TrEMBL record:
Organism annotation: Candidatus Levilactobacillus faecigallinarum
Keyword Transcription applies: yes
Pfam family, one: Peripla_BP_3
Ranges where the HTH lacI-type domain occurs: 3-58
Source taxon at top rank: Bacteria
InterPro entries for this protein: HTH_LacI (IPR000843), LacI/GalR-like_sensor (IPR046335), Lambda_DNA-bd_dom_sf (IPR010982), Peripla_BP_I (IPR028082)
Keywords in alphabetical order: DNA-binding, Transcription, Transcription regulation
Protein name: LacI family transcriptional regulator
Length: 326
C-alpha cells in the first residue's frame, strides 16, 4: 500500500497537520528540525505525492473534491446533482471520494487523498469531523465547506438546513393536530441528531407537554433503524412520531404494517427530508422537505466565495400520514 501522510505522522510522532504543512511547503509553527525529520521519514517510507502533483506549479486549480459519508439514507444524490451543476457553471471539475459510514479511518484517508492534489476546495457531505480532521483541513490552507451539516462554529464554512427548526416545526405540526405523546426516531448523537433533538424538545417545552426520554429512539437514519424502534413505541402510548429521515419513516411504516397498525388512524408519522420516498409509500408521508439540490449548489458558492444562502429554507408538505386526534 502506498504510504500516506498519516504513515509519516505515525513514524515521526508528529500530527498529521504538521506533516501536511511541511510536505506542502507551507509556513507554520514548526522548526527546521521538524522539517528535516518529516522529509527523512518521507524518503525512508518512499512517500510520493500522486502524479497530479505536477499541477502544483499552476496558480489556479479547477477541481473540487467531494467527500461523502455513506449514511444509509437517500438524500445525497440530489446534493451531488446540485454540486455538479453549479461546479460546471463555474468551470470546475468534480472528483468524489467515499468515506464509509462514520468510519474514522476511511474518513481520514479520503481527506488525505484529496489533499495530495491541487484543489480549488473540498466539500464534505454529511461528514462529522473529529479533531484530527479539523486540524488537517485547517492546516492544508485548502478551502473547505461542510454540506448538510452545521457544526455551530461560525469560523467553519457550511451550508445546511436549520436542523433545530426542522424538528421544531415537525413536532409543532403534530402538536397542532392534537398529539401530545410524540416520539423522535432514528437520530444519532452527532451534530445533526443533537440539533434535531434540541428542536423537538423545545417544541414540547414551548407547548408545556410532557417529555419522556424513552420517546427518543436512536438510530443511524436508516430503514432498518425505523423497523427496529417501532416495538419500543408500542408500549409507550406514543400516537405520533417524527422520523429523522425518510428511510426511518419507511422502516416505521413497514414495521407498523407487520404489527397490523392502521396508519394514520393508530399512528401518525411526519418525516424529515422529503425525498421521492414520501410519495411512494402508503400512506404518502407528510414531510419537512429539504431542498437538497439547492444545498449542493449553494455549497459550491460558499466554497468559492460566491454569494451564498448558507441556511437553506424548508417546506412542510402535507400528505396522508398524519391524522387529527381531537
Amino acid at each position: 500500500m502506498k504510504p500516506t501522510i498519516k504513515d509519516i505522522a505515525a513514524q515521526t510522532g508528529l500530527s498529521i497537520a504538521t506533516v501536511s504543512r511541511v510536505l506542502g511547503h507551507k509556513h507554520g509553527n514548526y522548526s527546521q528540525k521538524t522539517h528535516d525529520k518529516v522529509l527523512a521519514a518521507a524518503q525512508e517510507l518512499g512517500y510520493r505525492k500522486n502524479s497530479a502533483a505536477v499541477e502544483l506549479v499552476k496558480k489556479h486549480a479547477d477541481v473540487l473534491a467531494v467527500i461523502i459519508n455513506a449514511t444509509p439514507t437517500n438524500f445525497s444524490t440530489a446534493i451531488i446533482d446540485g454540486i455538479q451543476q453549479r461546479a460546471g457553471e463555474l468551470g470546475q471539475q468534480v472528483i468524489i471520494l467515499y468515506a464509509g459510514n462514520r468510519d474514522t479511518a476511511l474518513q481520514h484517508q479520503a481527506i488525505t487523498t484529496a489533499l495530495e492534489r491541487p484543489l480549488a476546495g473540498i466539500l464534505l457531505v454529511a461528514i462529522e469531523p473529529d479533531e484530527e480532521d479539523r486540524q488537517l483541513l485547517q492546516a492544508s490552507q485548502t478551502p473547505f465547506c461542510f454540506v448538510s451539516l452545521n457544526l455551530d462554529d461560525p469560523t467553519i464554512k457550511s451550508v445546511s438546513s436549520d436542523n433545530r427548526q426542522l424538528a421544531y416545526r415537525a413536532t409543532t405540526y403534530l402538536i397542532d393536530h392534537g398529539h401530545t405523546h410524540i416520539g423522535l426516531a432514528g437520530i444519532d448523537n452527532f451534530h445533526t441528531g443533537s440539533q434535531r433533538l434540541a428542536g423537538y424538545q423545545q417544541a414540547l417545552a414551548d407547548h408545556q407537554l410532557p417529555q419522556d426520554p424513552a420517546w427518543v429512539q436512536p438510530g443511524d437514519y436508516s430503514y432498518q433503524a425505523g423497523q427496529n424502534v417501532l416495538p419500543a413505541y408500542l408500549a409507550l402510548g406514543v400516537t405520533a412520531i417524527v422520523a429523522a429521515s425518510d428511510m426511518v419513516a419507511a422502516g416505521l411504516l413497514t414495521a407498523a404494517k407487520q404489527h397490523h397498525l392502521v396508519l394514520p388512524d393508530q399512528l401518525s408519522l411526519i418525516s424529515i427530508d422529503g425525498t421521492i420516498i414520501c410519495d411512494l409509500t402508503t400512506p404518502a408521508l407528510t414531510s419537512m422537505t429539504q431542498d437538497f439540490r439547492t444545498i449542493g449548489q449553494q455549497s459550491v458558492n460558499r466554497l468559492l466565495g460566491q454569494p451564498t444562502q448558507a441556511i437553506s429554507p424548508v417546506v412542510l408538505v402535507e400528505r396522508d400520514s398524519v391524522t387529527i386526534t381531537r
